[in-house]
Design a protein that fits this description.
The protein is mainly beta and 145 residues long. The protein has one helix and nine strands; from the N terminus they run αβββββββββ. Keywords: Signal.
């Protein structure tokens, strides 16, 4: 009886590390096999306010799904008001408030979002003015409609 227990214990000890040593195959996302990642970066120093329709074309039969937005906003010294990032999509406005960094008025924002865009989004800085400098990054993916 003791010999059988030792044999089973030895067999378990030998096979257990082999299970952890096997290579795991990356799993394909079954629900979204056509998901094509995209990162859109936009920067400007404006004479009035930073606005743009972002120079990226959405492929035919696709929609842009935005998942993450980040921005650094450095206004002119005269502009001390609150700022927010405005993303206008399909006639709807999405405002993401910026958080002040310093007394000089610099702001950042970093948000996880889920915005579905059939047309390219219009991006602006609400509360921006002459001399505002902005760096914006939008990440997401193109998906088949």
């Amino acid at each position: 009886m003791k010999n059988i227990f030792r044999v089973l214990l030895l067999a378990a000890a030998v096979t257990l590390p082999a299970a952890y040593g096997q290579y795991s195959t990356p799993v394909r996302e079954v629900e979204k096999p056509d998901k094509r990642p995209v990162t859109i970066s936009y920067g400007c120093t404006s004479a009035a306010s930073c606005t743009n329709l972002l120079g990226v074309t959405i492929p035919a039969g696709s929609r842009l799904v935005l998942e993450y937005v980040s921005a650094f906003i450095s206004p002119s010294p005269a502009n001390t008001g609150s700022r927010a990032l405005l993303i206008q999509v399909n006639g709807q406005n999405h405002y993401i408030p910026a958080k002040d960094l310093t007394f000089s008025g610099q702001s950042i924002l970093s948000e996880t979002v889920k915005i579905y865009c059939d047309t390219m989004p219009y991006v602006a800085i609400a509360g921006g003015s002459v001399g505002t400098t902005v760096d914006i990054t939008l990440t997401g993916y193109f998906a088949t409609k």
